[in-house]
Task: structure prediction
Amino acid sequence: MKRLLVVDDDAMVRATVRQMAEDEGFSVVAVTSGKAAREACRRAPFDVAVVDVIMPDEDGIRTMTLLRREHSDLALIGMSGGGRTGNFELLKLSERAGADVLLRKPFDHGAFAEAVRNAVLGHRNRPKDTVP
Amino acid sequence: MISPAAAERFAHLLETTAGGMIDEPLLDTGGLCAALAADLRAGGTNAIALLHAGGAPWRGSGVPLATHLAALKRCRETCRHLLRSGGFAAPDRDSLDDALIHAFDALELESCTHGAGSDGMEAFVGRIRHLHMLGAMARPLGHEINNLLQPVIGMAFSVRRKFPADSAEARNLTLVFDAGKQASAVVNDLLGLARQRGGAPRPVDPMAEVQRAVALLRFRPQPGVALHTFLASETASVILPPGGLTEIVLELAINGLEAMAQTGGALTITLKGGDGTTILEVQDTGPGMTPEVLTRCREPFFTTKPSDPCAGLGLTVVQGLADAAGGALEIDSAAGGTTLRVILPAATEGKP
Result:
């Protein structure tokens, strides 16, 4: 069973993304911060991480950059409901931080399933030497 | 930049119009819209320049401002319609759309300057402030609501799958799902409205932006206040949403003018280059800020003018624009005057 990590400070969003991912057949772990995400990834590898861009202690851009550095095989999905300052520009920024796919909240099952598929495929097809 | 061929095509369109002036029938029957349509079909490289060129002949033409703006609005709508239906890929379409919004704003601002005098200027500044107020509220609100809609939409779908498609439960959950989607569309409309001004940050010429603001300020003379400008001609481009630096100057200058409402004095606007930076200074000779005001003046909605519903966002907006550009806002204030300094890093090639 493929493993998916959800990183979001909002409990309701964690629960929803967990449900969506389980519906898609993933084994899911949900954490509340970037630090907890790195610890979880060190304990056991994940296939996909879905990371909120705006979080209080450490923003998702930094989380994804650090996750990408340590786990080049991990497929990364950035998600945001629009920033407090830069609006959806943050999602573009997260792409630069190494996200394979971006999701705008609120997203439905179809968008989520497609994002996961693309993230996994996109990542698999990406030559190793171009991984940021 | 407008290509020579497009300029020529446009000049020809102008000449073929009675009096060399674009009028509404021309917009409707072909003219500017046709030129724009042709350009957009060819990739849209000249659309913005055409729109600007199309705005120029109105200046001083005696055509009422409202007519001018209504025609331009229709023109912009035509552009947007063409963009939506013309098979453009999303990144190109969005950036062109952004650019058209800005081109329209710039024209509106210019027409305020040239056509409507100080009333137009006040209206324009008022509109900027209202949009900022809307934006300042819409962005965090939009973020929160989009977060809240995530479980509404996600869970409605997940739970619906557990019921037969023709059951009352499934139908009711479809209602919840659809309502969530609709609410999200409303939020995005609001966010879209809030980001209508400016568009994406890009290298902008500080001199042009500051001069535009100064031109607007000359329409707002304040008795007993002299306006001085020291603008260095060779300043490096900075990364801001187009129109952003004009807004910065207007916000700072209007604060300065209001500070000198009782005393009179001098407002000095300086633009200069520094070591890898471009620096804008706006200095007044008013009474200066009290230590309490100086500490709090960057806070959103903090104001010394409680009667103005849009007050309290000027410096927040300036700070936000400076932050976004990777720069800083410095404030020196003492009895005898206040100096606000916006330090912006110069745009470097390859790092837009």
Q: What stands out?
A: Strands of chain B lie at 202-204, 225-231, 238-240, 265-273, 277-284, 328-334, 337-345. Chain B has eleven helices and seven strands. Residues 9-30, 55-60 of chain B have pLDDT under 50 and may be disordered.
